[in-house]
# Entry
Amino acid sequence: MQYVRMPIEIEAPEQLGYHTIDCNLTESSYTDFKFGELGLNLDDLILAYIDHVGHPGLRKLLSADTGGKIGPDRILLTAGAATALFIISTSLLDRGDEMVVVRPNYGTNLETPRAIGAVVKIVDLHYENSWKIDPESVMRVVTSKTKFVSITVPHNPTGTMMSLESLQAIVKATGELGIPLLVDETYREMAFCLGGALPYAATLGDHVISVSSFSKTFGLPGIRLGWLMTQNAKLFEKFFAGKEQIQICNSALDEEIGFQFYQKRAQFLPRILENLKRRHDMVSTWMTAHPYLEWTKPTGGCVGFPRFKNANFNTEKFYSTLNEEFKTHVGPGHWFEQPKRYFRLGYGWPDDVQLKRGLANIDAAIQKVHK
Ligand SMILES: Cc1ncc(COP(=O)(O)O)c(C=O)c1O
# Structure
């Protein structure tokens, strides 16, 4: 493995120190919960090694969410979606193997296959095409040597969704070739603009692998708890072996917190989605007829990916003014292998006041560049 640190991690707010930032519009999750807000009881928790697959009660709840289509024995709990993605890549790829992945994307989906030394065939998405993941464009680069195809829906960093028909088309096309399809659906529940989430992708075919976690919709990235799901027994066994070799089992503490939270998620979810929707509307209003910025309006997730209308805008000066003078941060394009003309704007994490101030600071920094 040839590990290389990614800009998105090097420049992450937690690495810079949250206290150095006033308006944090970099995040791709809902506002982090405080432990005390959750009302959990952990006194009887025994800090032992736990079930290697993951908390049976939590897997049962997740299985029920899939309508029982994915059994608890085909759900592997992992240390965040990031570890699930790592397990999948390292299980399916050896050096020189070919895989297909869309870009822009969450960095790990590109970087782990590269670290393995795989041949990474990239399908670039485009602003001009509303960042659509077009099944035909993806399948055009797939060959008989492709070990797996990797997509992210709802999409990070653009917040765009696939229609169910498009998702089904790519499931069908990969299925006919017998190629595993990884669907990173870490933002799945945040499909508020379409009136509901897509089905768990793994329910759509035996060759499909779903990945998600507690980090984004539930605002619990600090418990490092996620999962992968697949109907396919052989794939599952391989992924399970990978997990055991990496970590044996998850943290007992993280899983118990995740389990108790998930039991009462109905108490939290409506307020989360309501807040997300309101913040989404705030940003949409700000973007409407914006003199300097344009975007594809997000339909899911909690991020958008605006760009400067002027391709030659002085982005270096913009980002340094925004960060240093206004203590406001967004995710610049290079975090996603895109020009710095683009930036990811996370609107789910800051409260309304901080978000409003952050948007005003972006405008003020743009004005300063123009002076
Ligand atoms: C699309 C996507 N997948 C996976 C992850 C990893 O999330 P976690 O490991 O916190 O569950 C992220 C985090 O930003 C993401 O955006």
The pocket of pyridoxal-5'-phosphate is lined by residues 28, 80-82, 106, 152, 156, 184, 186, 213, 215, 221, 226 (CB under 6 Å). DSSP finds twelve helices and 14 strands in the chain. The chain has two domains: 7-33+267-370, 43-265.
